């Protein structure tokens, strides 16, 4: 494969774009080389500007669950475009999509649409503080909830310490009310509650997708919910990544836990910029215009995003591809493990529904510390071998791979062959 045109665009982009990208993960910093520039996508395939075609396991980091440009979604968007792009006023489809989303999540009576997962999370946290009258929030190391100041933090050396800023430009004052706990470790949460009496809520991904794919262990989510509520705090579950990915609804039902506040994004807009937060009535009625917690957005509930979301979720419910997703993910896991064994490469594979991730480590991965034992140089070699053999992966060891219902048997066989080439390349390092 050649990447000449991508290289040319990268050089041009350096002039007026920061790093020639608009999101850091696109820069390929963790795998080396320069980023690819994409020209088009259809179904399970994505094509770069040099004409190279790949089976897409990035899927815009999740939302293209039906594959790219599904005909029913495309039709709905085209129809909506004829009526206008943005009105700054209410439309019927906002009500329709709100019902679809609320019906899919037990315990969610009302929802507020926003424009991104980051916006959903910052609003959800503000709502938890407004409802409880408390200030502090606990987050988990390795869980990513967007780039708002209060959550761009790194843990201190102790489990019960205040966090330190994890990004330049974030003042210590912005994170003074953020506490860090360890994923899958309820005792680290209890330590914070023992030390502080002003904790408004705990936020986490039900399945962590930004340190690879890390699933909750030993009834962790259910016990966390019971404990947090017993302390007068709220559980905020960030399903921006997991929403509608492993069942029609969220991961909460699969783990028998019900969030006090749920944050959503990506898929509910069919790939358009969208997010949402929702909860039971008594919590959501704190939000303006019903209550005193202010949050607004001119583009929230954008008519094009609403049309894309309605079409995507309607078709997704009809297809009900979740059993197939599990089967395909299991097949890919077997490919990874057998190929790694063949070439004597140490890996651990984690998966959840339509999300899967190989870690280049011999450790069991249940938290961020264990995920960080992965050999990122081996992943980089594996990544480029997969790309050269026609499979588009997230350019990071710590990002989930996503499946779409557009994957064919031929695509799966191509993934298998690419995995074998990838493991062979790693074995030669």
TrEMBL record:
Swiss-Prot/TrEMBL keywords? Cytoplasm, Isomerase, Porphyrin biosynthesis, Pyridoxal phosphate
Which SUPFAM superfamilies does the entry link to?
PLP-dependent transferases
Q: Which InterPro entries match?
A: 4pyrrol_synth_GluAld_NH2Trfase, Aminotrans_3, PyrdxlP-dep_Trfase, PyrdxlP-dep_Trfase_major, PyrdxlP-dep_Trfase_small
Question: Known Pfam families for this protein?
Answer: Aminotran_3
> Which top class of enzyme applies to this chain?
isomerase
**Catalytic activity entry:** (S)-4-amino-5-oxopentanoate = 5-aminolevulinate
Q: Where in the cell is it found?
A: Cytoplasm
Source organism superkingdom: Bacteria
Which cofactors, by name? pyridoxal 5'-phosphate
**GO MF annotation: an example:** glutamate-1-semialdehyde 2,1-aminomutase activity
Q: Which residues carry this modification: N6-(pyridoxal phosphate)lysine?
A: 266
* Record EC number: 5.4.3.8
Q: Which Gene3D superfamilies match?
A: Aspartate Aminotransferase, domain 1, Type I PLP-dependent aspartate aminotransferase-like (Major domain)
Regarding protein family, the annotation reads: Belongs to the class-III pyridoxal-phosphate-dependent aminotransferase family. HemL subfamily.
Q: Which PANTHER family match?
A: GLUTAMATE-1-SEMIALDEHYDE 2,1-AMINOMUTASE (PTHR43713), GLUTAMATE-1-SEMIALDEHYDE 2,1-AMINOMUTASE 1, CHLOROPLASTIC-RELATED (PTHR43713:SF3)
The subunit field of the Swiss-Prot or TrEMBL record says: Homodimer.
How is this protein named in the record?
Glutamate-1-semialdehyde 2,1-aminomutase
Q: Which gene encodes it?
A: hemL
């Amino acid at each position: 494969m050649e990447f000449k045109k991508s290289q040319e665009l990268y050089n041009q982009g350096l002039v007026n774009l920061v790093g020639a990208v608009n999101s850091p993960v696109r820069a390929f910093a963790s795998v080396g080389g320069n980023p690819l520039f994409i020209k088009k996508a259809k179904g399970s395939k994505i094509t770069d500007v040099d004409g190279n075609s790949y089976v897409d396991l990035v899927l815009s980091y999740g939302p293209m669950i039906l594959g790219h440009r599904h005909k029913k979604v495309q039709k709905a968007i085209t129809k909506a475009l004829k009526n206008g792009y943005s009105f700054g006023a209410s439309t019927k489809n906002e009500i329709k999509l709100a019902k679809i989303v609320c019906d899919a999540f037990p315990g969610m009576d009302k929802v507020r649409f926003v424009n991104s997962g980051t916006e959903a999370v910052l609003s959800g946290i503000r709502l938890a503080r407004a409802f409880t009258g408390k200030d502090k929030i606990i987050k988990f190391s390795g869980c990513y909830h967007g780039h708002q100041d209060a959550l761009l933090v790194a843990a201190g050396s102790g489990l019960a310490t205040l966090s330190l800023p994890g990004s330049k430009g974030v003042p210590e004052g912005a994170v003074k009310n953020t506490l860090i706990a360890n994923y899958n470790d309820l005792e680290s949460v209890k330590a914070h509650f023992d030390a502080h009496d002003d904790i408004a809520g705990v936020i986490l991904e039900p399945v962590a997708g930004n340190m690879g794919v890390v699933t909750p262990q030993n009834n962790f989510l259910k016990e966390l919910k019971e404990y947090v509520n017993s302390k007068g705090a709220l559980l905020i579950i960030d399903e921006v990544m997991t929403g509608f990915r492993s069942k029609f609804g969220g991961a909460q039902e699969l783990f028998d836990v019900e969030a006090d506040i749920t944050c959503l994004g990506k898929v509910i807009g069919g790939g358009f910029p969208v997010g949402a937060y929702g909860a039971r009535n008594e919590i959501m009625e704190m939000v303006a215009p019903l209550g005193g917690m202010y949050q607004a957005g001119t583009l929230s509930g954008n008519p094009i995003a609403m049309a894309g979301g309605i079409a995507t979720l309607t078709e997704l419910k009809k297809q009900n591809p979740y059993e197939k997703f599990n089967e395909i993910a299991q097949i890919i896991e077997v490919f990874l493990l057998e190929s790694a064994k063949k070439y004597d490469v140490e890996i651990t594979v984690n998966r959840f529904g339509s999300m899967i991730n190989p870690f280049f480590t011999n450790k069991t991965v249940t938290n961020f510390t264990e995920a960080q034992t992965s050999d990122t140089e081996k992943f980089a070699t594996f990544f480029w071998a997969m790309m050269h053999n026609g499979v588009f992966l997230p350019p990071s060891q710590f990002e989930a791979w996503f499946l779409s219902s557009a994957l064919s048997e031929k695509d799966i066989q191509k993934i298998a062959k690419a995995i074998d080439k990838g493991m062979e390349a790693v074995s030669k390092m």
